[in-house]
């Protein structure tokens, strides 16, 4: 993604928005060759790891010259095959090729999603336990007010569960903002190294949020294999600072943010242009995911969290 802009880890959302009609479009041989040349150009010029970019492009070229892609007759099939081919070399889940998105007019449901800012539910469960279901880290314009409302709802609870089991990522600035609710100290949460300009962008806890900070509130985070990218950063930030207990499944394993680039009139791609660097570990969760402290099936994560909270309370009595 472009440094200085609100960064988005949204390729999962992009894929889901693609029109199914694109898949019926046939691919000409000459178009296939031009498409792969353009993909190679974008990867070599922009991918965060130049040496891996060269290997990825060489692999695509070899497959194309050997006629591998001839068997894929329409845009959807070709996009899937190209994605599998590039990922077989770089193993980067943020790099994907997909049909060009069809613009859609604003809808009432989209407006509602923006108003929610990814916070689909916030409530107090039995036993005075806060629960927030967060399905995306939205642009801070929408995310901050929603976060403030959610945190106000659970203010005064004895523990808080944040459910990220259906969270595919989002803005690192929004990750930074929500993390800041749980720390009083000025701490470096995460850094993003960007190939363009060879520079690093740092994300520190903010001195103030619009609600009340809760640095001592016991925090539990629910995860699944779908939990991805910015949601993984939130998990990793909290886990490496020993600030939360993670419960559920190992997350998806995507730590290289990028931006969407146009290939041609039919296709576009997500190219990772940066990479996360945690100040505690010196690395990130790319390819491995974030391993929870308590590993259970995602369907059992909430129940397990409630049991842990109850056991913790009984142990303190």
TrEMBL record:
Q: Which SMART domains match?
A: TSPc
Which molecular function term from Gene Ontology is one that the record holds? serine-type peptidase activity
UniProt domain Tail specific protease: residue ranges: 99-297
SUPFAM superfamilies the record matches: ClpP/crotonase (SSF52096)
Any one of the GO BP annotations: proteolysis
Q: Under what name is this protein listed?
A: S41 family peptidase
